[in-house]
Amino acid sequence: MNILIVEDEEKIARFVELELLHEGYQVQKTTSGREGLLLAEGGNFDLMILDVMLPELNGLEVLRRLRKTSQMPVIMLTARDAVMDKVSGLDAGADDYLTKPFAIEELLARIRVALKKRPSREEVKEEGALTFGALRMDVARRIVTYEKDTIELTFREFELLKILLENKNIVLSRDTLLEKVCGYDYVGETNVIDVYVRYLRTKIDDLYGIKMIQTVRCVGYVIRE
Ligand code: CA
Q1: What is the 31 CA–ligand 1 centroid distance (Å)?
Q2: Exposed site from 8, 65, 103, 216, fewest CB < 10 Å?
Q3: Domain limits at 15?
Q4: Average pLDDT in the 57-86 region?
Q5: How far is the CA of 40 from the centre of ligand 1 (A)?
Q6: Taking residues 37-62, what's their average pLDDT?
Q7: Is 124 a residue whose pLDDT tops 50?
Q8: How far, in Å, is the centroid of ligand 1 from the Cα of 58?
Q9: What's the gap in Å between 8 CA and the centre of ligand 1?
């Protein structure tokens, strides 16, 4: 597994690099957002650790541009108490974020979760497509389309939609969804599922005038045919 670190604080970058190497990952690091974006777009990485506060091209901008072409897992590093950073990071398509200072064990745990959910390049299984009306999800190729449009989803938006489509007509609780989408050891905001549902509705329901994901009050969510 190949991990890209984009962090201008060299001490932190070096520390994370050493820990990742120790864990057996391959690592490349850069202090520049611009270079980080180019490297990530090159497609040879399985995951990116991206600092928000970077000179020139900041982390949010790097992520926004990357998401036009790539759904690789991205874990953002934000400054302490920078609530805006977290919200903007999720908006821009981050899969997870950590607030500095962070424990290296927590970063390692989140990396494992993010990588586990990502289909490995070697074992892309041939799975059938999941559908809802004109919406089609090609699970193996991780492509979602509505009629002829391609819908760009972040890693977790895709996972959430996949689970709902796989369990059509079954109401899934927020806890169940949280565990399946974020991993059982997830330790972030508990309303994160509501946030992702909102993103999915904005990208799909609102855009195409359909009502796909239904809220079941006090329970969770369901997609009904
Ligand atoms: Ca920084």
Answers
A1: 9
A2: 103
A3: 2-117
A4: 84
A5: 18
A6: 92
A7: no
A8: 9
A9: 5
